[in-house]
Amino acid sequence: MRTQKHGKMKIIVNENEKGLLFKNGRFIRILDAGKYICLGGKKIEKLPLNAPVVSSTAALETLMTNDSFRENVTVFDVPEGFIALEFIDGYFVRCHRSGRYAFWNNFCEREMRLEDLSTPKEADYISKYEIPTCLYTKFEVESHELGCLYFDGVFKYILEPGVYYYWNGPVHIECRKTDMRLTRMDISGQEILTLDKVTVRVNFALNYRITDCVKVVSEVGCLEDQLHLNAQLALRDYIGSVKLDEMLENKNKISEYVLSRLKEKERELYVEITEAGVRDIILPGEIRDIMNTVLAAEKRAQAALITRREEVASTRSLLNTARLMDENETLYKLKELEYIERIFGNVSSLSLSGGEDILSKLSQLVSACRGKNRTEEREIN
Questions:
Q1: Does residue 149 fall inside a structural domain?
Q2: Which of 72, 96, 183, 292 lies at a CB distance of 3.0 to 4.6 Å from 84, suitable for a disulfide?
Q3: Model confidence over 37-53: pLDDT tens digits?
Q4: With a threshold of 0.90, does the pTM exceed it?
Q5: Using CA of residue 62, residue 65, residue 66, residue 67, what is the dihedral sign?
Q6: Are residues 175 and 189 both part of a single domain?
Q7: Is pLDDT above 60 for 297?
Q8: 300 lies in which domain range?
């Protein structure tokens, strides 16, 4: 609190503060809590007790030349390559980078913990304190990943799934994460010329899983590009050596050939190829029209062949039936009864008398019905 009246300035130093008295820019002494009046070029600078002593008027080295100031403060040096964690009464307060710090005596129980930054090590306790993010690096390794930890580009060890904290220091820390799940790769739109000069478009797919994340990161530039290139070359080698008809008839052989070629690269690329196959083979428009015409002609020929085969079979069956009926009178009578049953299913009543043959009487009845129907049609016309 400051008040000014008739050239006088009144300043109140609170219980949680210390005052530094300056006269004409020179440090004079430390002021405890109380009310003070500044006259004749005097200036009072108030500093909190729970923070490092930092004056805007004089440097710490200048203040340390005063005996009274040295008796009232404790100086703590943070060496280069270290960071200090300040605790007051057991509670974390702040971090201090390398440098010299002065703290007021007899204010509280203060503890300073030094952390060496020259040798990076995991510091999971960082998550417990409110530390500025610029002072540390955080790595999150998901449940399906493994992390390769590097110090200045040199591999150190593998990080299992979890959250890791490291202090930022002179050593550059990097974590290269690798997805260890079964991964799908699509190789689409590959235009390839067959042996008989037909351009086809092939869509291919494969599944793979990384077996050694450290080797993949350190020795394989881009795994996806390497797999894509090897599958592409294998497709071109096979399709370019066969004709269109042979390729379409043996589509599965394409998948088998490419898979065998990729299997040869497993040890070199540190992966396991679990499955590979052709998804689609797309033909040019004119070739597709020709093949559709050929297919339609083949189907028509097959239909005609089946029709003729059925007709021959039906005729042969009728011939066999007639031969059996001719040789067996009982079978002949059974056939008569079958026809009578069919007729009864289409008329309401039927009377037969006399000793003539049943089939002859049925024939006469059918002929009479036809004649009657023709007479009725003439009368109507």
A1: yes
A2: 96
A3: 888 788 999 999 888 99
A4: no
A5: positive
A6: no
A7: yes
A8: 294-346
